[in-house]
Amino acid sequence: MNAAIRAVVRQADALGHETWGIRHGYQGLLDKDWAPMPTRACANILQRGGTVLHTARCPEFLLPNRRAEAAENLRAEGIQGLVVIGGDGSFRAAEALQREHGVPCAGIPGTIDNDLPGTERTLGFDTALNTAVEAIDRIRDTASSHGRLFLVEVMGRSSGMLAVHTALACGAEAVLYPESPDDSYETLVARLYANWLRGKRSSIVVVAEGDGLGSAVAVGDRLRRDHGLDLRVVVLGHIQRGGSPSALDRIWGSRWGAEAVRRLDAGESGFYLGEVAGALALLPLAQVLDPHPSPPGDLSELVGILSR
Amino acid sequence: MNAAIRAVVRQADALGHETWGIRHGYQGLLDKDWAPMPTRACANILQRGGTVLHTARCPEFLLPNRRAEAAENLRAEGIQGLVVIGGDGSFRAAEALQREHGVPCAGIPGTIDNDLPGTERTLGFDTALNTAVEAIDRIRDTASSHGRLFLVEVMGRSSGMLAVHTALACGAEAVLYPESPDDSYETLVARLYANWLRGKRSSIVVVAEGDGLGSAVAVGDRLRRDHGLDLRVVVLGHIQRGGSPSALDRIWGSRWGAEAVRRLDAGESGFYLGEVAGALALLPLAQVLDPHPSPPGDLSELVGILSR
Amino acid sequence: MNAAIRAVVRQADALGHETWGIRHGYQGLLDKDWAPMPTRACANILQRGGTVLHTARCPEFLLPNRRAEAAENLRAEGIQGLVVIGGDGSFRAAEALQREHGVPCAGIPGTIDNDLPGTERTLGFDTALNTAVEAIDRIRDTASSHGRLFLVEVMGRSSGMLAVHTALACGAEAVLYPESPDDSYETLVARLYANWLRGKRSSIVVVAEGDGLGSAVAVGDRLRRDHGLDLRVVVLGHIQRGGSPSALDRIWGSRWGAEAVRRLDAGESGFYLGEVAGALALLPLAQVLDPHPSPPGDLSELVGILSR
Amino acid sequence: MNAAIRAVVRQADALGHETWGIRHGYQGLLDKDWAPMPTRACANILQRGGTVLHTARCPEFLLPNRRAEAAENLRAEGIQGLVVIGGDGSFRAAEALQREHGVPCAGIPGTIDNDLPGTERTLGFDTALNTAVEAIDRIRDTASSHGRLFLVEVMGRSSGMLAVHTALACGAEAVLYPESPDDSYETLVARLYANWLRGKRSSIVVVAEGDGLGSAVAVGDRLRRDHGLDLRVVVLGHIQRGGSPSALDRIWGSRWGAEAVRRLDAGESGFYLGEVAGALALLPLAQVLDPHPSPPGDLSELVGILSR
């Protein structure tokens, strides 16, 4: 996210605007936990994980009167536009803030799950994907040396995006994810047996956190119980967050951050940025209410074909 | 490239075809340096850099009679289609082989320069980009600690693609590349002085190998001579090649490898694969003769805005 | 381990001996699952994690008659010495094999736990340490951004070596490990409160797998129950195994592999190699029965001082 | 170095002392470019490359009257002890400052060359070693795929320490370094031919920056001229500096930083810290005038044996 913050600050400076950084998300907006952010404050943050502005959940922001306070805080300070970096929750709040109180808002997609409607990419996804793939490359060394079955859980509460891309990139033998068809457990068992018969002694199965069968631990227990399989479960968890961002995430963070400011400067608002058909695109904030995208079916099918 | 090789072999196996691996590129086609490649031979190659089939230059292949021999070798062995992974030289040869001798050919873009006509992506580009960015992150530590100017040369003989994307992703102060306007040296000097006046003591300038001003060494000499600047030159060189491929390169290598085989199996040929508007696409082999794409101008402009 | 395998094979070749690789550890010795290993078979394995010879548990080898079979297999094939890479279980078996049947054995310490008696280092420890530290650096990004408490479990069934070194290297706020004093839970709680009062909002506690308080999950449950703390648990697990070995692990693997062969060639046996006072040293195989070393107390104390 | 800075500040705080950070090395001591450094200023610096205090050359400090000024500055501010992190130049200056003006000094070895007398380790060496090895792993991918000879220059003006350890860890075919015998060029040529005859098509030769034969570029030119070899030269250069420090460097930086403060607090001074026989040790500052250590001969010999 720091790439986007840096781009917002410096593009604004180039257009003659001052930027204030709001710490701890919407909570900071309520608490006036903010300060001017000069361009120098963005030196050497591009390569750092996390966010220099910190973040926090703010359930209060769901209350209309709290949003009214936030709008009043912004007005009192003379802040003319708000750039929100976050996922669908953050965007819904921004949409309400603009609709109810006329605060000009721009959204930059920042979630490792890549599950926002309308955009093919969100900040952090490419980094999290590479981190998961590197971790599984290490696990593969052990799986191969020991001839073992591993279930590896990756993030993605309600989205299989990260799981399917990770599985394809690390050469997993199978992938389980929320949007996959109901018979995925039987399919998994059949594939593991087929691999075994083919002489493949080690297998890695990627499981999305929010898979319908339950977590990797649950799937592992079921496989042990039903088929007596000797297996190991690894939960990647928070390792996938953080870390120095990948080149792509830095490039898109920079492009979106600069574009958000240019558009606000030009009087546009009520949008979020995205990648559509490979190009930078504007989407109306209200589109965040659309259903979230599913991972392409041909990719998950490819996982099976390529691990034979 | 190993991701594409693995995908070709395993998709072919799934369709009931046998795959032969040709070592050392077209030279191996002339020398019959080939062998059957079972699916097991592709175990654990997805995460490795380089190519298990090796590669070599083969100037002889420019001669029509040598191409005729190659076609005859393929026919004699009963090989029904050829998947070529490489850059524009390799694709021109494939185009000639198909046009002259009817060998069904499919191309998979494999060059870290990302300079093939028609496609937004080539295999190895994302990996090389991340490698260059990581290297420059390290150099940034020294540049900041010592308050120094660094010129860093990245690959890309006639293309600034890698240079511009690297510069944006590593927060470089400037970028020089072949397709940039003639006044780039004066622009560079002006920007370095402006940064100095703004209190910025360390700067990193990314220089494309094939920049019109000459290599990073030449630009460095000129800056030293004209302005007495104390600077360091780093040539990233072959460090950008090799290394475990990024997730994106693995995913596209897998997708293209599988698609190439499916299309050949369906009787199509004379194409190469690419990414167009974010999606997998087929391009006619003859399109490789088109002019190579230039890096987007807005990205190189952004480098300047964001390093203020 | 591949560094040691490569060194054994190539040093043996330099001394005029042939090397056979035994797959799947002692099980392979019983099954004659072995083959000659030429120096070319060791090309490009130095940088790979895991082991090209695979590994397996072999409980049968605890039976004297099975060891007799193994010795007979070696004799029948004319194998004159055995290099065993592994931990204390593997060394005990080697010790018995030599004592009972006169098979000349040499041991190379290969366990990521660094818990073998007599040696300051085992292969894999430095790699696992760096892997754990990199993973926790990522978690730190999230801990800082969100102001959260994380419990991170690292490997080390009965040894705190990995936990204490990891904690010091990643700047953890506290470390729990098997050999630490009984009051460690109270100490932990006191330290977390002290940090909180000092304004430190994020904390990372490293927990050794075999800590007396139970796993990180158990400690986390207790902290939640007793103090209502909002925390996250991450189990690094098998991510710490595998991965391209660190420079130090490659260097010591190379040195030990070569030395083992030279000593066997000179007629010595019944030893394992180690690092003592920073230098390469020979230790009698029987020393593996000594108690395992504890992590230096001053290091774990330093964790507390430096996280203030 | 940040690990050592953090340890100095926090250990001093634990002992009730205040720490001031001096920016830009001895130049900052002359310019009073210093400020109090609270423990909070050391948050999240452990994992960063470079140094938060910046660094600079200061040739003036060789003049006795400038050193007198520096001592006066320290006295005037009430600073009671100086911790110097650096190489032999920095330590010589500290030695003079203490001898001439009674300023209590403590040295922490900080140079990636690992060429300080008396100590087996300096901060940055393990990190630079791993960085060089990772870079050469990438080059190896290309060398293998293309069957090529690479000369790779690593840092080390007058010391082969980094070159020899790098060569062993990356499985280089040969290494050239300043302290090696005069006939190293002939030995190199002989070895390259022997490898070629043995069927080894790709070779990597590590060359120390300060090798007697000249730089890697010079050696490459000579090999091309004398033997018509087709080869590539890569100069790793400043890539080896910077980057997130390895676990070992963080641990030793932490240990040395804390120990330096404890000793100064106990009234000791005029020493530098080191690793002797694997343990933390104190050395008299004057020992820095001793000749620098040579890389162990058995390691460079091993490079040859293991690359057969």
From TrEMBL, chains A, B, C, D:
This is 6-phosphofructokinase. PANTHER family: ATP-DEPENDENT 6-PHOSPHOFRUCTOKINASE, PHOSPHOFRUCTOKINASE. Pathway: Carbohydrate degradation; glycolysis; D-glyceraldehyde 3-phosphate and glycerone phosphate from D-glucose: step 3/4. Its main location: cytoplasm. Its EC number is 2.7.1.11. It is found in: Cytoplasm. The gene is pfkA. Keywords: Allosteric enzyme, ATP-binding, Cytoplasm, Glycolysis, Kinase, Magnesium, Metal-binding, Nucleotide-binding, Transferase. The lineage of its organism: Bacteria, Pseudomonadati, Acidobacteriota, Holophagae, Holophagales.
